[in-house]
Amino acid sequence: MNVDPQKLDRFMGQVVGELGAAMNAALVLLGDKLGLYKAMAGAGPLRPAELAQKTGTDERYVREWLSAQAAGGFVTYDGESGTFTLPDEQAFALAVEDSPAYLPGAFHIISAIIKDESKILDAFRTGEGVGWDEHDAALFEGTEKFFRPNYAANLVSSWIPALDGVEEALKRGARVADVGCGHGASTMLMAKAYPKSTFVGFDYHGPSVGYARRAANRAGIENASFEVATAKDFHGEAYDFVAFFDCLHDMGDPIGAARHVRSMLKPDGTWMICEPFAGDRLEENLNPVGRVFYCASTMICTPASRAQEIGMCLGAQAGEERIRQVVSEGGFTRFRRATETPFNLIYEARP
């Protein structure tokens, strides 16, 4: 090897940052689960003992946690007063659950994939899959907590209005299937926004369906129900609108799923496909957002697809052209990118 010392130094500096970020993931979970961020939000400067008292925690542990948060720029520290402050911007991302920037859910996902590392290690060696249902339960909670703020910020306000005629149909009253609904966040957001329509959330993971049913009951949502079914066997009368949120790329047979959607749609129905933002070429995705999605795809999405029939393994960075091919092979004749955000591409497919 011909090692350039300056390049090595730069890389080692980069890795030090990576180590701090990786270790801080556990501290973010502590801050979320213990209510430390929420207690600091809007409270101004606090001493460790004050935060410990507010949260019923131990002062010495809290002081060490705050020091780490200050070193990472999550909170600020005033040396003269010995106090720590959670700035409003950080509070918006770490303590406000209905904020579009709410982030702790992502760290619950990270927790799950670290716990499941041994399963993925075996999958690398055998080529076998690891099903969504085989992951640690933190994945299911984290997925709902991470994706819900994004859906709340965009689904009703911009994604559905970008589809031809769908918003009007939902306001009048339509039949809707939300496939791969998980804990039901997307289903319930739509059901609240369009009370004249009827929504059915489908997911193959029974515990998630049970969670969604309980959540809808607690929220008093009467126009949404939840059933256990896969994307290739969800059922009911023909639907006006079918939605897939961040799940098509996880499926073993996305073309088969597309064919089933086509068979379940009314002739003038619409299929909305929400997928992670991605370019069609690898080099287009070599950026911080693409990195997050490729990491998640390595640990969650690709193993999930490989665990199912066919195992097409689109991956979380499939890109528009691959999704277009899947939809076309599934029998749809019209496909377009309806809208986008920095994190999602929203496609519209019609028979």
Provide a quick synopsis of the model.
The chain is of the alpha/beta class and 351 residues long. 50% of the residues lie in helices and 16% in strands. The protein folds into 2 domains: 90 residues, Arc Repressor Mutant, subunit A (Orthogonal Bundle); 247 residues, Rossmann fold (3-Layer(aba) Sandwich), CATH 3.40.50.150.
Describe this structure in words.
It is a single chain. The chain is of the alpha/beta class and 351 residues long. It has two domains: 5-94, Orthogonal Bundle (Arc Repressor Mutant, subunit A); 104-350, Rossmann fold. Helix content is 50%, strand content 16%. It has a seven-stranded mixed β-sheet, with helices on both faces. The termini are far apart.
Identify the CATH architecture of the largest domain: 3-Layer(aba) Sandwich
Share of β-strand residues: 15-25%
Multimeric state: single chain
Q: How many structural domains can be distinguished in the coordinates?
A: 2
**Major sheet, described briefly?**
7 strands, mixed
Spatially, the strands of the biggest sheet line up as: 5-4-3-6-7-9-8
- Which regions contain 5 or more consecutive residues with pLDDT less than 50? none
Mean pLDDT: 97
What is the alpha-carbon Rg in Å?
22 Å
| Strand elements, count | 9
Order of helices and strands: HHHHEEHHHHHEHEHEEHEHHEE
Q: What is the C-level CATH assignment of the largest domain?
A: Alpha Beta
Structural class: alpha/beta
Shape summary: globular
Helix content: 40-55%
Which homologous superfamily in CATH is the superfamily of the largest domain?
Answer: Vaccinia Virus protein VP39
Count of individual helical segments: 14
Distance between the termini: 57 Å
Q: Within the CATH hierarchy, at the fold level, what is the topology of the largest domain?
A: Rossmann fold
